[in-house]
Design a protein that fits this description.
With about 50 residues, the chain is an alpha+beta fold. The chain has 1 helix and 3 strands. The protein has a 3-stranded antiparallel beta sheet, covered by helices on one side.
Length: about 50
C-alpha cells in the first residue's frame, strides 16, 4: 500500500509559478489551491509518496 505525506503552504499570487515549480522539483504534487486570508495569498495543499 502506498503511504503519503502532506504539506500545506502559502502561495503569493505574484509568484505562483515559481513557488509551485520549486515544490514540484522537490517531489510534491499539487492537490488543491484555496483562497488565503487576503487577496494576495493562496494556500496550496501538496502530497508526495513516502519512500
Amino acid at each position: 500500500m502506498k503511504k503519503w505525506e502532506y504539506l500545506t503552504a502559502p502561495v503569493l499570487v505574484h509568484a505562483t509559478k515559481q513557488i509551485l515549480d520549486n515544490f514540484g522539483a522537490d517531489g510534491w504534487e499539487l492537490v488543491q489551491i484555496v483562497p488565503g486570508m487576503n487577496p494576495e495569498n493562496l494556500v496550496a495543499y501538496f502530497k508526495r509518496e513516502v519512500q
